[in-house]
Design a protein that fits this description.
244 residues; alpha+beta; five-stranded mixed β-sheet; two-stranded antiparallel sheet; 9 strands
Length: 244
């Protein structure tokens, strides 16, 4: 009996049923597989808090605080010469030395005038002059007023500038009807002396067309104002008489 149980016996007995070993291995593997698959298939059975800790990645650590800005302490430079004057020291020095300071930009208060432009203006004088008096540039001169483009001149005055006149033709129908009189026309004389914008104002209507045809051919001397030619707004009288 003990020979059958002890493996190291001289005559060990082997099982005569190898299929039982294979069946046992298959059953054990199935049990292990079922134990592994049950948590994967039935997720409700697992605690949600534990699953959240498994799935959620830990939060990243907070960023380090920014380095504090280095405070730079600037020691003011004591100047012995200010505004062109030597100031007395506050402490008596133990040893008197020759004062030789490096050239520095001039003080703001020593250059310019009160109310001046900081840094100066192009073309200004050193030290500045209040109000732009002698030596300063001064304010710019006021702009020159522009000359008017058109002026109003009376008919008799503008008649003196007439250099080419065409006499009107007396209409035959007006002669037959013994019509005579003065036709008054309104005209704009351009800068070159030609007549433009000619309109009828008053006078015998039968004589209007003949008067306008003749005046359109008139030429005037250009009118100058401050040396510049301008347009002239005026009236023109054309007289018709049966005697001549």
């Amino acid at each position: 009996m003990f020979d059958d149980l002890v493996i190291s016996s001289a005559h060990p007995s082997r099982t005569h049923k190898p299929w039982t070993v294979a069946l046992s291995a298959i059953v054990q593997a199935s049990l292990v597989g079922v134990l592994i698959l049950i948590p994967l298939l039935v997720t409700e059975a697992l605690p949600k808090g534990m699953m959240a800790t498994w799935i959620t990645a830990p939060a990243p650590p907070p960023p380090p605080p920014p380095p504090a800005a280095a405070v730079k302490i600037v020691k003011p430079v004591a100047r012995l010469i200010q505004a062109g004057k030597l100031t007395a020291p506050t402490v008596i020095p133990k040893e008197v030395k020759i004062i030789k300071e490096q050239e520095m930009p001039p003080d703001v208060g020593a250059v310019g005038v009160v109310g001046g432009v900081p840094g100066g203006v192009p073309g200004g004088s050193a030290g500045g002059v209040l109000g732009g008096i002698i030596g300063g540039t001064g304010p710019p001169p006021p702009p020159r007023p522009e000359a008017p483009q058109r002026i109003r001149v009376g008919g008799q005055v503008q008649q003196a500038n007439l250099i080419h006149q065409v006499l009107p033709l007396y209409p035959q129908i007006a002669k037959t009807a013994h019509i005579q009189g003065t036709v008054i026309l309104h005209a704009i004389i351009s800068k070159d002396g030609t007549v433009s914008n000619l309109t009828y104002e008053s006078g015998p209507p039968l004589l209007m067309r003949a008067a306008m045809d003749a005046v359109r051919q008139w030429r005037y001397r250009p009118t100058l104002l401050n040396g510049e030619p301008v347009e002239v707004d005026t009236t023109i009288d054309v007289v018709f008489t049966l005697g001549g």
